[in-house]
Amino acid sequence: MYALVDGNNFYVSCERVFRPSLNGRPVIVLSNNDGCAIARSNEAKDLGICMGAPWFQIRHLEQQAGLVALSANFTLYGDMSDRMMSLAAGLGPTQEIYSIDESFIGLNGVRGDLVARGHKVRDRILQWIGIPTCIGIAPTKTMAKLANHIAKTAERKPGSYPAELAQVCNLAALPAQDLDDVLQATDVGDVWGVGRRISKQLKEQGIQTVLDLVRMDPATIRRGWNVTLEKTVKELQGQPCVDLDDAPEPKQQIACTRSFGQPVTKLESLIEAVSEFASRAGEKLRKQNSLARELLVFMHTSPHRQGPQLSRSVVVPLRRPTDDSRLLAGAAADGMRRMYLAGYRFIKAGVILVDLQPASVQQQELDLEPEQEAEMPRDRSRLMVAMDVINQRYGKGTVHVGSTGQTVPVRAWGMKQERRTPQYTTRLEDVPVVRA
Amino acid sequence: MNSICISTEPEPAVATPLVLPMPQAHLKAGFPSPAEDFTVNRLDLTQILVSHPQATFLMRVSGTSMQDAGIDDGDMLVIDRAIKPRHGHVVVAVVDGEYTVKYLHQRAGRVRLKAANPTFPDIIPKDGQTIEVWGVVSSCIKRFIT
C-alpha cells in the first residue's frame, strides 16, 4: 500500500503561513522573472486563472479583483517542504520524496485504520507548520496519485465525490460498487501519466472515464499505445509496476538556463551569464558524479517584443570529458563569442551539458600530442571539491570562476523578483515581526 | 509482504541532527583512558529551546505591550506551533491580518487577548469573530551583547 501526501497549492500556502492577511484573497506565485503563474490559491482558480498563465495577461486582475501576485521564494518553500516531508514520514516506514510538495509513503506493515492515521498526520502538518495537505491511499502509486486527486477535488468542489473522501481518500477501503462509481466520475485525463495528447486519443476510442480505462485489456493498450500506458493501466487495476525508487538514475543531461531580468545586448554580460550557468551546471554534474563530453550554449531574443529577432545555439565539444567548472565556463564563453551578434536584445540564454558519462569511466588516450604535453590540464578535482564545499558553507557564488562577473546585485542579467517575500525561516534579518 | 512492527500512532521524524557520543576504545591498544566511559555531550541550546524542530519558528518583537511579562521591543520569540494553546500561555495571534503577541485569557467560555502592560486594552473578539492563535511562545531570547 502507498500513500501520496501532497501540499495544497503549496507555494501559496507557504506564503500564507507568514502573511495571514493573504487568507481568503486570490493569490498567485509567479515563476522566475515574474513570467507566469506557477501556483494559485483556490480563489485565484475561481477567477479563471490557469496554471502557467502569463503575468501580462492577468495583470489587470490586480486592480479588478484584488489579485495578489508574488515572486517565487524558493528558499522559503524549500525549508517548509523539509518540515512537511519529515512530518509526512510519520505515516509509514518508507518515504520517497517525489517533488517539492509531494511524497510517497510506503505503508507495508502498518496496522489499523489507515484513514484515521492519515487524518492524524494531516492535522499535525496543518497545526505544526500551517500547510493544508491531502492524502491519497491505494495499493499502487498511480492509484494513490488518483486517490490524492479525489481527496483534493472532494474538498474543493463539494458534491463532486462523496464528502467522506475529502482530505484523506483510501481507495482500497471502498466497496467495489463505490469504487466503480468514483472511477466513473473521474475524467481519464486526470490519471497520472496520461497527458493531453493521449487523453484525446483515448476519448476518440470511447474511453472517457478512469473506469473505462481500468476495464481495458493491458495488452490491447500496449498494442494501441505504448508500454508506459500499459503499466499505468496495470497500476490502476491494482498491480504495482512502479516501485519506490529511492535513488533516481543520474540525469542524461543537465541544463541551467534563465531569462534575464532585462534584455541584454553586450557580449561581456552574455559571457558572464553563460559562465555562471556553466559553473552552476558543473556543480550539479559533480554532485551526481558524471562528466560531460559536450556543452550546448544558446541565446535568443524575446518573441513577444518589438525589434529584430535572433535565436542561436552552438555545441562546443570538450577536449576530454570533464566536470571542471573552469573548463566548462571557458567552453561556454568560447561558444558565446562564436555565435554573438551585436544589435539584438537578448532575453534568455542557457547552458546544457549533454553526452554525460559516469566519472568512474575514463577513456585512455594514445600519446599523440607530445607538443601539448606541457599544457596537459592539471587535475583540478580537489579544487572543484573545495569550491563546492566553500559555496555550500558560505552561500552560492562565494568563490566563482572569474568570467562570471561581479557580485550578485550588480549583474545586468540577474533575476527579476520584484514581488518576493522575505526569507522568513532562513535569514535572521528576515524573521517576521510580531506587534506587542 | 514484510510485516514490520511499528506503532499504530504516526510519529514525526526527527529533523535536527542528533549527535551521539562514540567511545573510541577500540582504537587504543595501551592503557585505557579513565574518562572513556564518561563521554557526554556538551549542553546544546537548540535542544534546550526547541522541542519540536519542524514546528518551531522565530519572530522579532516590535512594541511594548508585553513588557511586564519580560518581553521587550527587539526581543526574539521562539514559537512552538506543536503546543496546544491554553489559558495563561503567551501566544502569537492573528488580529486583522497581523501578528500580535499577548496572553491568552480563557474564562467561562470567553476568549480574549490580554497585554502585559496596563496602558494597553484587552483585545475582545466581536460577535461571531474568533481569535486565531498562530502559535504558542515557548521562550523569549533577550540579547545584551550582539
Automatic annotation (TrEMBL), chain A:
Keywords noted in UniProt: DNA damage, DNA repair, SOS mutagenesis, SOS response
Record-annotated UmuC domain positions: 2-195
InterPro entries: DNA/RNA_pol_sf, DNA_pol_Y-fam_little_finger, DNA_polymerase-Y, DUF4113, Rev_trsase/Diguanyl_cyclase, UmuC
Gene3D superfamilies found in the cross-reference section: 3.30.70.270, 3.40.1170.60, 5' to 3' exonuclease, C-terminal subdomain
PANTHER family hit by this protein: DNA REPAIR POLYMERASE UMUC / TRANSFERASE FAMILY MEMBER, PROTEIN UMUC
Family note: Belongs to the DNA polymerase type-Y family.
Protein name listed in UniProt: Y-family DNA polymerase
Organism: Hydrogenophaga bisanensis
From TrEMBL, chain B:
This protein's UniProt keywords: Autocatalytic cleavage, DNA damage, DNA repair, Hydrolase, SOS response
Assigned protein family: Belongs to the peptidase S24 family.
Tagged with keyword Ligase: no
Protein name, per record: LexA family protein
tRNA processing in keyword set: no
Domain Peptidase S24/S26A/S26B/S26C: 27-137
Domain of life from the UniProt record: Bacteria
Signal peptide: none
